[in-house]
Design goal:
Blueprint (H helix, E strand, L loop, with lengths): L1 E2 L2 E2 L7 H13 L1 H6 L8 H19 L11 H7 L19 H23 L1 H14 L7 H12 L4 H9 L6 E8 L3 E8 L7 E7 L4 E6 L10 E7 L4 E7 L12 E3 L4
Antiparallel strand pairs: 1-2, 3-4, 4-7, 5-6, 5-8, 8-9
Helix pairs in contact: 1-3, 3-5, 5-6, 6-7
Length: 264
């Protein structure tokens, strides 16, 4: 358990993870202690931001080391599915004191939400806005709503569609290719958001001539409709199959991420 300027942890299984878990506990001096966040009500916010800061230490100090723990997306895939009692992130801590879904919200869905926010507004902007938020709200006991409105103001846009999806819904991460059609000018994919959470993805289309078309899709593509997306790629090549790649993102069910034209 962490306390201001003090944390007691068991020794991790190697030096890298000992250092990163120490970084995590030290980061609690910012969230919640310097800020005055009520961790009894918003434990997910406390652990989310410290887990994110821990990942920055890992990326900077040990870029060649595999991240262990919940910010490893390979671990998160298994937890961001319906089997782990998904509840809205905004749910107060006192209402989810069972092991799940509290662990899911604290260490998986929360960090994933901030990860996706970085995809939406850019990592450099995210870090700059968050630093500014900590300076403005230092010792003032902010709530998540203060954070949401602060980021809306800094970004100069209404991000409520993102907050609503990631913080107020029972959703999880699962996209599926429902249909693929092709004309002489473009390839069209109908992608269904089965889980409800908007996430970025990469389209990888295999062509008859052996080539591959690859296009990255930002999470912003879901801004106007988080249920279904029609995405078109301009090409005159004959495509034989399409796959959604979630490297750097999240998806709970890989079985519905591929489509073979003429067979589906």
């Amino acid at each position: 358990m962490e306390f201001p300027m003090l944390a007691n942890n068991d020794v991790a299984y190697d030096s890298v993870n000992t250092i990163t878990v120490t970084a995590h506990e030290l980061a609690h001096n910012y969230y919640p202690f310097m800020m005055g966040v009520n961790e009894r009500k918003f434990g997910w916010w406390d652990e989310t931001m410290t887990t994110l800061m821990e990942s920055y230490v890992n990326d900077k100090a040990y870029p060649d080391q595999k991240i262990h723990g919940f910010f490893d997306r390979n671990v998160s895939f298994n937890f961001l599915g319906p089997a782990h009692n998904m509840v809205p992130l905004i749910t107060e801590t006192s209402n989810i004191m069972k092991e799940y879904p509290s662990i899911t919200n604290f260490y998986v869905k929360g960090p994933a939400a901030m990860d996706m926010l970085q995809n939406l507004i850019g990592k450099e902007n995210f870090i700059r806005y968050n630093k500014s938020f900590m300076e403005v709200w230092r010792g003032k006991h902010p709530t998540p709503w203060d954070f949401f409105y602060f980021f809306n103001e800094k970004a100069g846009e209404d991000l409520n569609w993102f907050w609503n999806s990631w913080f107020y819904s029972f959703g999880y991460a699962d996209l599926a290719i429902a249909e693929v059609t092709q004309t002489d000018q473009y390839l069209a994919l109908r992608i269904v958001n089965k889980g409800g959470l908007p996430v970025p993805f990469t389209i990888r289309a295999s062509c008859q001539d052996g080539g591959v078309i690859e296009e990255k899709v930002n999470i912003r593509a879901w801004e106007t409709n988080t249920n279904e997306l029609i995405y078109r790629i301009l090409t005159d090549k004959q495509v034989i199959s399409v796959t959604l790649d979630f490297s750097g993102s999240y998806d709970a069910d890989p079985a519905n991420n591929s489509y073979t034209i003429g067979k589906n």
